[in-house]
UniProtKB/TrEMBL annotation, chain A:
PROSITE patterns: ABC_TRANSPORTER_1, ABC_TRANSPORTER_2
Primary location: membrane
Name of protein: ATP-binding cassette domain-containing protein
One term of GO molecular function: ATP binding
Recorded superkingdom: Bacteria
Automatic annotation (TrEMBL), chain B:
Assigned protein family: Belongs to the ABC-2 integral membrane protein family.
Cited Pfam families: ABC2_membrane (PF01061)
Taxonomic lineage: Bacteria, Bacillati, Actinomycetota, Actinomycetes, Kitasatosporales
Keywords (A to Z) from UniProt: Antibiotic resistance, Cell membrane, Membrane, Transmembrane, Transmembrane helix, Transport
Transmembrane feature ranges: 39-60, 80-102, 123-149, 161-183, 190-210, 258-276
Location of the ABC transmembrane type-2 domain: 41-283
Membrane topology: Multi-pass membrane protein
Family matches, as InterPro entries: ABC2_TM, ABC2_TM_bact-type, ABC_2_transport, Nod_factor_ABC_transporter
Subcellular location: Cell membrane; Membrane
Keyword Acyltransferase carried by entry: no
Predominant location: membrane
Protein name: Transport permease protein
Amino acid sequence: MPGAIHAEGLVKTFGDVRALDGVDLDVPEGTVLGLLGPNGAGKTTAVRCLTTLLTPDSGKATVAGIDVLKHPNEVRRSIGLSGQFAAVDEYLTGRENLQMVGQLYQMRAKAAKARAAELLERFGLADAADRPAKTYSGGMRRRLDLAAALIVSPPVMFMDEPTTGLDPRNRQSLWDVIQELVAGGTTLLLTTQYLEEADKLAHDICVVDHGRVIARGTSDQLKAQTGGERVEVVVHERDHMATARQVLAGFGKGETTVEEHTRKLTVPVTGGAKLLAEVIRELDARGIEIDDIGLRRPTLDDVFISLTGHVAEETGPTAGTEGADEATTSAPSAKEAGK
Amino acid sequence: MSAVTDTVRVSVAKGGGVGQSIRDSLVIARRNVVRMLRIPEVVVFGLIQPIMFVVLFSYVFGGSISIPGAGISASGYREFLMAGIFAQTVTFAVAGSGAGIADDMHKGLIDRFRSLPMARGAVLTGRTIADLVQTALTLVVLAVVAVIVGWRTHENFGKVLAGFGLLLLLGYAFTWIGALIGLSVRTPEAATSGGLVWLFPLTFISNAFVPSQNMPAFLETIANWNPFSATVQASRQLFGNMPAGYPVPDAWPMQHPVWASLIWSALIVLVFRTLAVRKYRSTSA
Ligand SMILES: Nc1ncnc2c1ncn2[C@@H]1O[C@H](COP(=O)(O)OP(=O)(O)O)[C@@H](O)[C@H]1O
Ligand SMILES: [Mg+2]
């Protein structure tokens, strides 16, 4: 049985650009699919096709069991869309925005009013409810936009980069809302450039690049696909790097990567903690002082690099997370090299 | 459970039909009127230009433009002029509606609306209704200013109202041109200038400010068939502002200006509404 969102062979071209180049998707009811890809991958185009805003050149899609191309208006009754940029009327208050959207979903004015009040409360906007949305911060607008998409509690939700541009605190609070939504049984298709976000929120992940799905699976499956664990060592002195490299090569199951400016060496391994202990003993025996050593499981960044040969995200969601750290590995900037 | 999901899945009414079209259009119209009241600068600036026209034209050109049947007299020209300025003012609504819709596109609101189970043309219809409200307000203020500078009507109240009715209808028709422009450009600024560039030739090659008889022959023909001239001629007649001996040009629209005005306005609504709604619904980009 096809899922709550199902697409086969979606193609959409804009002039010479193949924004979607044969995309298949299936999102079982009550689950979250993360559409992960860099800028320009085709994520927004996919969302626009599935939410009736755009007709694909070829392919077919159903949402909540309804054919998107044949019965767009029935589909619109069953979906909520929170687009890439918060779509709120700045001159209306938060409350007026929600009531308007509710009424346009064909709710009665009274029901729309009650539902708006409920959502404003839930999204922490009750105090600002009667102020024009123009006075809202970016995070508040985003929440208002999401509340508008949820006004009829649609069974299927689409969110296009819901946390892009938000600070960590707002991102976390939006994640909480999304997790609650999914716990309530909503099917969600979420696009993101943040590997951490897909990892955290999505049951299944589709990695897209240049309009194609280049990998799919759970976060764990994708990590496994990239290879197993690896040992990461930061040596204390730059002079010791060559020796350390020899040692690691002896234990490794693949090529050792060396990062000069951070004095970090990484090598894929099998053997877990026991092997790690052996590596430490050997380095010690050779008199190499180490600042840091650890066994790392691959992140989605590694997945992306191994799949596409380039880094997925331009800026990490939260500086200093493992994800953001990894992103700099293959693209060290001059600034980074200097420290 | 929390508010995100605890309300039973709200039953979305089936909707459809004329009832839904009207309801949705009114929701959007209301939204645009509320916006208008919160950005009163727009309405105020929209008034300054026509008020300046009333004052400048009456006093600067009043003594030098000859009206057939009335000769050269400032007071005669003032009466002749008002219908023209009223008509020009209502057509300027094209810029407001175009810029408003372009702004909604730019802000992603049009995408939001298009993802909702709304009536097809409601977003645009709602916008044009709100613009009609604004146009009516503008006309009221302008009429008061006109009376202050000495404009008088010489027909019964019903005819005067009918004259204003035709002006409003023309303004309404032009907001559909604005809607199409707004959907076709990328920025509100482009919609404003795209809405205004052709309005100047359109309103000046007409009988609005000078009698078409005063123009070279080929311009006179254009002026007589200009949709804009028909409404000017009709409301000028209905206001009783046509000088007694004013020779009516030979062209059909000038002979039957009320019909011509109605037909032109209806035609503009029909054509541009069809094109604009199709463009709004277009899912190619
Ligand atoms: N309306 C459009 N007209 C022309 N090109 C477009 C349009 N929408 C998207 N594209 C192009 O299609 C590609 C995919 O864009 P998009 O779906 O927005 O990517 P993403 O959301 O993953 O960043 C990009 O190369 C983009 O420039
Ligand atoms: Mg995008």
